[in-house]
Amino acid sequence: MEKLIFLAFFDVLLASLLMFQPTICSSNFTNQDALLHVKLVIEVDPMNTIKGGNWTVEANFCEWIGVVCSNHRQRVTALDLSHMGLQGRLSPFLGNLSFLASLDLRNNSFYGTIPIEISCLRRLKELILEFNQFEGSIPPILAQYQNLEVMSLAMNRLTGGIPGEFGAFPKLQQLDLSSNDLRGRIPSSLGNISTLQVIVLVNATLTGSIPSALFNRSLTWVNLTDNYLFGSLPSDLCYHWPNIQALSLRHNQFSGLLPKTLTQCKELIILWLSFNCFQGSIPQDIGSFQKLQKLYIACNNLTGMIPRTIGNMSSLHKLDIGSNYIEGEIPSEIGNLFNLQRLSLRDSLLTGLYLANNGFGGNIPQYLSNFSNLIIFDADDNQLSGPIPMSLGNLKKLIAFSVPSNQLTGDTYGSKLGFLSALSNCQSLKTLFLAENPLRGSIPESIKNLPESIKNFSNSLQILSAPNCQIRGQIPNQMGFLKSLTFLQLSDNDLDGNIPSSIGQLESLQRLCLGELLLHQNRLSGSIPNCIESLSSLQKFFISSNNMTSAIPISLWSLQDLIFVNLSLNSFNGGLPIEIGKMRALENIDLSWNQLTSAITSSILELESLTSLNLSRNSFQGPIPKSIGNLKGLDFLDLSYNDLSGMIPESMEGLTHLQNLNLSFNKLSGEIPNGGPFRNFSALSFIGNEALCGNANFQVPRCRVDGKKSSSNKQLHLLYIMVPIVSATLLGSVICLLRKHGKISKIDPVSVENPPRIDHPMISYRELCLATNNFAESNLLGVGISSSIYKGTLTNETNVAIKVLNLHIESALKFFDKECEVFRKIRHRNLVKVISSCTNAV
């Protein structure tokens, strides 16, 4: 009887357990139950699509969000939970949806392993689990899907390689396992899938070569980008892949020659072989790619020239052959590529025509004007020669034209730069870079006589840069029509004549570069026009190395936004007006190598933003203004080769940022200051001033000391000696008294229960500043290797000596530790008393 009871109980238990296991039987209830288990393991549902939606028993599960059922049997045939941001594990109960044909869970955060129970979905045609966090190995049992056509497990954390069993898929058309750390080789068994059309294995850490079996005639799309694959491409590649439309092998280690038969892939639309080690030349019959729209072969070791047949690729939209060893002329046949949107022969793939930083020679081809949609033409740093084509004026949409560092010249049949008139038709042109080309011409009369042509630029051209172009003649007065011009650079040319007064009409100009950096080494003469005051936006004004004369106009110093001024290497005369003090934004002034006279106006010392001042090689007279110490941000000061006299102001010791000082070859006298930045200067800063005296390191005589000053020095030296002695005596006396009265006893060890009592007074850094007048030099007693000692009086009228460590010196703390160790061990009646310590490092 007991046995029967036991058996009955076991049967009930077994039945109960089976109720909670996924089963292969399917019914409406089974489908609903499976979906509820899917809902149960979802942990995060940010949009409340499943947890807070209509996934309830009160509603028909066929009407639940993401669920599609068959019309006849009301069984789940598709489950689409993509792009919902769901997080959780994947329920094994999904295996009970036996009629499921499509499972799409892409772009969620499902994690854990892929449950093997989903291999029971015999009718499944689409399995899309991409963009999740699945981990572990890919279950080989998934190969049991006899009807599967699309499988995407991309963008997960799967490992362990591609199962060789996948070669048994009888109907698979698309396979995407990208962005998983699969490692290993591509299984040759994948070549057994006769229906396979698309294989994408991007960034899967795969190694080895492409297995020969994979060259399956059914393939139309092969993407093996970003792996460690190597080897060469077979010469009969197109025979095995006659229907290939897209082939991407970029960012691998493929080598060898590009197959000459590559152009036999007649259906090819995209060919991406960049960032490999391919060698040899571009196939001469590359023009046979009639359907090819994108060709990327950059960053290889290709050599030779661009085949002229490239002009036959009538469907080509994008061409990138940069970062190779291509040389020779740009074939004019490129002009036949009417659909070309991007041509790149360098690293950057920017919009427009980029030919920069190559070795291209020959003329700029006339066909360039056929690119009616061209926005940017960039061919700097090549070997282009000949004239700039007049036909470029047809590029109505051109925004930037850049050809610096070539061998381009002016017009063939004249000395005028006629292309400037042609480019004036490009009404969208904003930047024009012509630097370092031997143009050897003058600005054409057409621009001077027909101002309407240059007026086309007036609403667009912002930057005109043509330094070192051998441009001669005068700057045309019509330049003033360029109302939008913000940058004008004509340095290092052969320009002569005066600066036209129309320059004052360039109200947007921020840089007028007629000097040192940008319009220097010309032969401009005359004076700076007074109309320059109209350039209210001007920030930088350079006109160095010219033949400018007369006084600097006061109108220049009315420009409130001016930051840099360089008028050096001219013949300006007169003095500096007091108006210069109004330019509060000014940071850099260079007036060197002129004929300026009179005293240095003290108003220049009101320029609080000034960091660099160069007045050298002039004839300034009188003393250096004492208020020069107000220029707290100054780091460069050159007043050499003038007729300055008097003493060097002590206020200059407060110029803490000053790094470069040159006062040489003047008539200065008196003592050279030795505080502040003067500690870092050498004799070269003061050479040629015979009346200077000071420290020996300046290589000048020692200053003569009168009796009063000598007596004062003796008293100061005596103070250095006596203060420590007296303080030590007082400390010793206190120690003796304490010992005599038994106040000093053996120190008890410190414990948590009895912490040491702090008896010394707490003195703040602020109190020390007050006691020493902000550590003034008048309170300085002495300077050591790593510290300075100041005298001071605390608020309780106690006279103290304050030692300040220089923590910028690496050994400062070590020296202090050694001193403390010595003081701890020495017992002497003359030891000074240590009152307290503090820090301002907050």
Automatic annotation (TrEMBL):
It is a single-pass type I membrane protein. GO terms for molecular function: ATP binding; protein kinase activity. It comes from Corymbia citriodora subsp. variegata. It is found in: Membrane. InterPro entries: Kinase-like_dom_sf, Leu-rich_rpt, Leu-rich_rpt_typical-subtyp, LRR_dom_sf, Plant_receptor-like_S/T_kinase, Prot_kinase_dom, Protein_kinase_ATP_BS, Ser-Thr/Tyr_kinase_cat_dom. GO terms for cellular component: membrane. Keywords: ATP-binding, Glycoprotein, Leucine-rich repeat, Membrane, Nucleotide-binding, Receptor, Repeat, Signal, Transmembrane, Transmembrane helix. Residues 775-842 form the Protein kinase domain. Its main location: membrane. This is Protein kinase domain-containing protein. Residues 1-25 form the signal peptide. ATP binds at residue 814. The chain crosses the membrane at residues 718-738.
